[in-house]
Amino acid sequence: MAGELAKLGYEVVVCGSDLSPVMARVEEVNVLIIVDAVNWGAKPGSVLTARLDDLEEEPVRASHSLRVSEVIKLMRKAFGHPLEVYVVGIQPERVEPSTELSPSVRQAVNEAVAKVRELLRRLQENSA
Amino acid sequence: MAKEVVVEHVARVEGHGSIKVVIEEGKVKEVKFEIFEGPRFIERVLVGRMYYEVPDVVARICSICPDPHQIAAVEAIEKAFGTSVGWQTRMLRELQLLADIIASHALHLYLLALPDYLGYPDALSMADKYGREVKAGLELKRAGNAIKEALTGRSVHGCTVKPGGYTRVPTSSELEKFCDMLKRSMEGAILAVRLFSSLKYPDFARDENAFMAVDPGEAYGFMGNYILVSDGERYPVEEYKKLTNEVTVPHSSAKHSSYNGKPFMVGALARLLLNGKKLKGQAAEMLKDLEPKLDALNPLTNNLAQAIETVYAVERAIEVIDELLDKGIKQDVDVEVKPKRGVGVSAVEAPRGVLYHCYELDDEGRVVKADIITPTAQNAANMEKYIKISAERLLSTGEERLKGSLELLVRAYDPCISCSVHSIKVIKVR
Fold it and tell me: What is the tens place of the pLDDT at every residue in B213-227?
């Protein structure tokens, strides 16, 4: 997905399991869209679009136990940004070590890219 | 009758494991540092892959310290092939390691360890009262991340590091920008030393310890061809198996290491105790003033060692950038890599201690065998030893204090690579 979005000209930061690389340009970031696998118990391959603040994150730890929502709150406290954070997520079929995407997730990539574009278009319209 | 007390999700460590303290007739009968984290078979994944794929694969071992893994890999492969890289590549590799140390120590000190000592459950909870400290930690991490990103294409799991050099090197203007960022973040590094030198480290874990660190040569650093041991011995890195003596233990998916039959510690405390005299600049001055607080018998003081080392890393990174700018950064300095059958071993200092990579390669440069020994795996037996000592001394203080103290102890090692504590169980057998 990172590759697909970069091809479309969006600024993409590959974070792995550590969201802190976003800090590199955080003062310039009003809107951050996190694109990742999100397990919310839906049908595998379903695509979710939501504001991070509207999601209740499970107490599952990311690297060194800093959850996505915690890192965002810390950044907001320290730098005042990012102002708005959205999540575009794909429901995984399975969560286990693998080098390939499951078929349902692979099929959902284009839809997720389209959701990111739609979200950005909506945000631009609202700010105009 | 057995009683089980469990603390779920011990905060601010990575991975899944547990500490089990078995108490019988008022005494600690047994302690186990259990690690359940599933093996990822990275060494097996590498077999059959070409030498130039290795740094990209090993970067995936860890999102906090992919850089030492990449550098250890390329150094070992170059040794196997008899390849020597030039001055610029060596400097860029040093800068990459320094950036990783800055980012990793900043995360651990400010966001993971400090809440323990200030009485908060996590960094977020202390951010209102200690906003300056949280911002200082994030600024340091940001500087480290930015350098890593410019050098490797990404701040996590970079992809430009190859045997022979880098597929892309930073421009002069990028380097100048980093110099400014580092100078700004130095305040945060100094603040970390002030904070961690003002703390009173509990002494429940004090006991004899042994240490190992890479011998960087005349100046302090993170790469070298020999390993120093606190008993005065010095071994070539090729003899790493004599130093680690890994054995499997039934309760852990991380092997346990020992030297002369005893566990040992690697990491910032080991580095400063063994190589601290080689420091220069502000870090050397700080070490001189704070040496009495850097207690070789107390692993909790590893946090103070990390703080002093952060000052060193910022100072040295500025120096490295200045040298690169003075000489002029060149875009095409890679050396030709000629694969040949051989074995190469390297050791670099990752934030958490000595990291070994060993590769056997065939005539075409395909990996025949890979062996990677991480610092947290080396520290696992040492942690278990100190958990036992601490549990024995804290037994009468009650379960809550015991659990909190053991978490504090484990966290002081800054365990990584998913080899850490998930929950603590205290089982009482009457």
Answer: 999 999 999 999 999
Of the candidates B415, B408, B120, which has an alpha carbon nearest to the alpha carbon of residue B266? B415
The answer to whether B12 contacts A78, with C-beta atoms less than 8 Å apart, is: no
Tens of pLDDT, residue by residue over B81-132, are: 999 999 999 999 999 999 999 999 999 999 888 988 898 888 888 988 999 9
H or E stretch covering B121: none
Give, to the nearest 10 degrees, the angle between helix B302-327 and helix B281-290.
160
**Regions of chain A with pLDDT less than 50:** 60-63
Q: Domain B42-425, what architecture?
A: Orthogonal Bundle (1.10)
Neighbours of A83 (CB within 10 A): 10
The per-residue DSSP string of B28-76 comes to EEEEEEEE-PPP--HHHHHTTSBGGGHHHHHGGG-SSSHHHHHHHHHHH
Provide the whole-model pTM. Answer: 0.88
- DSSP assignment of B143-180 equals HHHHHHHHHHSSSSS---EETTEESS---HHHHHHHHH
CB A116 within 8 A of CB A7: no
Closest chain B residue to the Cα of A63, Cα to Cα: B14
CA B26 to chain CA mean position, Å: 36
Largest Cα span, chain A:
44
Instruction: State which amino acid sits at residue B132.
Output: R
Q: Where are the domains of chain A?
A: 2-127
User: Which residues on B lie below 8 Å from A65 (Cβ)?
Assistant: 9, 11-14, 112, 122
Record the tokens describing residue B198, joined without a space. Answer: 């003002």
Hey, how many other C-beta atoms are within 10 angstroms of the C-beta on B184?
14
Task: Report chain B residues whose CB lies below 8 A from the CB of A70.
Answer: 122-124
What are the residue ranges of helices labelled H in B172-301?
Answer: 172-198, 240-244, 268-275, 281-290
- Cα torsion B83, B88, B89, B91 to 10°: value is 120
A74/B131 touch (CB, cutoff 8 Å), yes or no: no
**Chain B environment of A16 (Cβ under 8 Å):** 63, 156-157
- Three-point CA angle B8, B14, B16, nearest 5°: 50
Q: What angle do CA B11, B133, B311 make, to 5 degrees?
A: 100
Topology adopted by domain A2-127 = Rossmann fold (3.40.50)
Task: Check B40 against A20: CB less than 8 A apart.
Answer: no
